[in-house]
Write a structure and sequence with these properties.
It comes from Simiduia agarivorans (strain DSM 21679 / JCM 13881 / BCRC 17597 / SA1). InterPro entries: ArsR-like_HTH, HTH_ArsR_DNA-bd_dom, Metal_resp_trans_reg, WH-like_DNA-bd_sf, WH_DNA-bd_sf. This is ArsR family transcriptional regulator. Keywords: DNA-binding, Transcription, Transcription regulation. GO terms for molecular function: DNA binding; DNA-binding transcription factor activity. With 105 residues, this protein is an alpha+beta fold. The chain has one domain: Orthogonal Bundle (Arc Repressor Mutant, subunit A). Helices cover 66% and strands 13% of the residues. It contains 6 helices and 3 strands, in the order H-H-E-H-H-E-E-H-H. Strands 1-3-2 form a 3-stranded antiparallel sheet. The longest helix has 13 residues.
């Protein structure tokens, strides 16, 4: 994952309402949740919810699908996994390198 994409995704999740929306979607599972259910659960105005969902869709954390008159929001678990992997990718790398140098010395 590129640094710029990771930063954009983290920025969107850095807003309390968007983080709350995303966490609700993740709890909802792979089928996603209807927008109306999200609005009811979080008690946010429709226009506000639409704005936040658009931002999550833009960075690839959520996709939307329509079934009849119902619009579903589906969390993108692979995008979440990529973001988590990006953050953990070099975990303790400097510590391991330091320990390796100390072992050689």
């Amino acid at each position: 994952m590129q640094l710029e994409l990771a930063a954009k995704r983290l920025a969107e999740l850095g807003h309390a309402t968007r983080l709350e929306i995303f966490r609700l979607l993740v709890k909802g599972g792979h089928q996603g949740l209807p927008v109306g259910d999200i609005q009811t659960a979080l008690n946010v105005p429709g226009s506000t919810l639409s704005h936040h969902l658009t931002r999550l869709v833009t960075v690839g954390l959520v996709v939307q699908r329509r079934e009849g008159r119902t619009l579903y929001c589906v969390p993108q678990y692979p995008a979440l996994d990529e973001l988590i992997d990006f953050l953990q990718d070099e975990c303790c790398a400097n510590e391991c390198a330091r320990e390796a140098r100390q072992t050689v010395d």
